[in-house]
């Protein structure tokens, strides 16, 4: 990811928190020489400073066939907003876009019911705990045949993150006055996505004080 110095973010705790808050990610792998992407919810875990991403794909999805051999990329994105040059002090400026993105790289390890039933059960339980803990009793109350059929229809994976990149493009390359003006304008928006970017800029400014 292209990361000019002003927008680089390498604080692991901050990046992990962002990934957890925006865990519906885009997972990209190279399948037969072509980029292939799936949009999936992920569980973000940190154990002894090791970051792991856990999820699953439908078995007919060919992307999992690229696992365990080459690096994949999980892309996490959050709020974003158009920034008008009318918000800047100087007249000669151009439009841009503010956003936050985190890229996590690693080689996914395949989890299947036939080869690792305990790992499959653990993956399912962690997904449920993350997204709807109340569903766990429902899931375990289903018949064994039904649950096994559902788990046989997916390919689970666990990806240890070997490289993590964060980009917080929040007008840091502008003057403080411009940043404050942009933040104030975005915070006035009725669109929660746009106002969220304004809040991120405001928080970033407060950290610099």
Outline the structure in words.
This protein has 209 residues and is of the alpha+beta class. It contains six helices and ten strands, in the order βαβββββββαααββαα. The protein has helices at 12-21, 117-131, 136-141, 144-152, 176-187, 192-208; strands at 8-9, 24-31, 34-41, 43-47, 50-58, 72-83, 96-106, 108-111, 154-160, 163-169. The strands form two sheets. A six-stranded antiparallel beta sheet has the order 1-10-7-6-2-3. Strands 4-5-9-8 form a four-stranded antiparallel beta sheet. The longest helix has 17 residues, at 192-208.
Q: Let me know the number of strands.
A: 10
Q: Could you give the order of strands across the largest sheet?
A: 1-10-7-6-2-3
Helix content: 25-40%
**Residues in β-strands, percent:** 25-35%
Average of per-residue pLDDT values: 95
Radius of gyration, taken over Cα atoms and rounded to an integer in Å: 20 Å
**Low-pLDDT residue intervals, each spanning 5 or more residues:** none
Order of helices and strands: EHEEEEEEEHHHEEHH
Number of helices: 6
Based on secondary structure, the structural category is alpha+beta
Question: What profile does the largest beta sheet have?
Answer: 6 strands, antiparallel
Distance between the termini: 28 Å
Shape: elongated
């Amino acid at each position: 990811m292209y990361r000019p110095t002003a927008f680089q973010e390498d604080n692991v705790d901050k990046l992990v928190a962002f990934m957890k808050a925006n865990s519906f990610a885009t997972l990209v792998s190279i399948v037969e020489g072509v980029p292939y992407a799936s949009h999936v919810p992920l569980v973000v875990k940190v154990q002894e400073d090791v970051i792991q991403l856990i999820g699953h794909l439908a078995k007919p999805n060919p992307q999992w066939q690229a696992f365990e051999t080459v690096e994949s990329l999980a892309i996490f994105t959050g709020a974003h907003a158009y920034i008008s040059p009318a918000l800047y002090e100087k007249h000669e400026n151009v439009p841009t876009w503010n956003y936050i993105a985190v890229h996590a790289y690693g080689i996914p390890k395949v989890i299947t019911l036939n080869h690792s039933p305990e790992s499959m059960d653990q993956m399912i339980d962690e997904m449920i705990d993350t997204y709807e803990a109340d569903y766990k009793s429902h899931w375990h109350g289903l018949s064994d045949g039904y649950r096994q059929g559902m788990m046989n229809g997916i390919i689970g994976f666990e990806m240890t993150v070997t490289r993590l990149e964060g980009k917080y493009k929040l007008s840091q390359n502008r003057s403080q006055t411009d940043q404050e003006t942009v933040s104030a304008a975005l915070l006035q928006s009725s669109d929660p996505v746009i106002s969220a970017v304004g809040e991120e800029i405001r928080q970033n400014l407060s950290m610099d004080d």
